[in-house]
Structure formats: structure tokens, C-alpha cells
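Reviewers of the previous submission asked for a worked example of the structure-prediction workflow described in the proposal, so we include one complete record here. The input consisted solely of the amino acid sequence. No template or homolog information was supplied to the procedure at any stage.
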Amino acid sequence: MKILDLDIPDVKLIEPKVFGDERGFFLETWSRRDFLEQGMDIDFVQDNWSRSTRGVLRGLHYQLRHPQGKLVRCVSGAVFDVAVDLRRSSPHFGRWVGEVLSEENKRALWVPPGFAHGFLTLSDTADFQYKCSDIYFPEAERTLAWDDPTVGVEWPIEGAEGPILSDKDTLGALPLNEADVFE
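From that input alone, the workflow returned the following C-alpha cells.
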């Protein structure tokens, strides 16, 4: 497995080694050893799975208390996955990185604590799985506005009607200059 730095070096792109033949394929989705070799000592405590339809945008979510690191992957379909640095002390504060994660490329993304995370479904449906480094606490969850012009995420949105959003992602979302952030 290759663990690659992105423009924000704390966010990592994971490219697994895939062994395949006419019967199918095999790959390791996570290796504690490989992460430790990269200086990433992470204990995962919760696994999640979501399914979304084309045009659904989930995010940008984070937990202020009990911040979660997330190892995310799309196991069916394709998504555009985004991480936004919300650590005020970081030289990358307010910047974002995005990658296409898909059933085809089998890539994963490590989104460390201190980041908002979200994704846009690019395929008819997408199954999205992620490992979390802390338990979900609804009372600690916050939502950064997906369309905040200060952050400027370049979502690959098709059509003029925009993404499909939940109430949480519209009514409760705040722009970066009003959001609770990490020190």
C-alpha cells in the first residue's frame, strides 16, 4: 500500500496494492503496520457505511469535541471526497483538498482530526465506508457550509439545480468565519 501526501500533507491518499485475476481481486483496506511506518498511530473505534444517490452532497461535517479522524473509501460507485483544514494554528487553515474515490480506483483518504469532511456522489449510487478514530457524538457535531466562498471547494456538480442536501447540511451549516474551529 502506498500512503501519499496531498497539498495538505496531514491528509493522506492511500493507494492499495490490488491482486487480481479472472476470479476477482484482493486488497488490504487498512494496515496498522503500514500506517505506523508512516508515523500514523491510529486506533479506530467505529466503522460506518452510507449509501447515497447521484448528486447527494454530505458534509462538510466535523466534531468539535471528540474530533474524529476518518479513513474513508467508496466501495461501490464514485464520490468526490473533500477535507477542509479547520485547525486555526495550521498553515493550511481554511484550505481544502479533494479526490475522486471509486470502486474502480480503490483509493482511500485519511482525513485527520481537525478537518471537516464531506463528499458528493458522482455515480447513480455510491456505497461509502469509513473507519473513525472516535465515537460519533451528535451534540459535538458541526457543519461547515459546503458552498462557503471563503473556502471555495470546487465541487464537480452537474446541472443547474445543485446538489441534494439534508436539512442538517443547509439549515445548520455555517461559513468559515462563523464556524467553531480547532485551535
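Residues 43-178 form a domain with the Jelly Rolls fold (CATH 2.60.120.10). We consider this example representative of the routine output the project will generate in years two and three.
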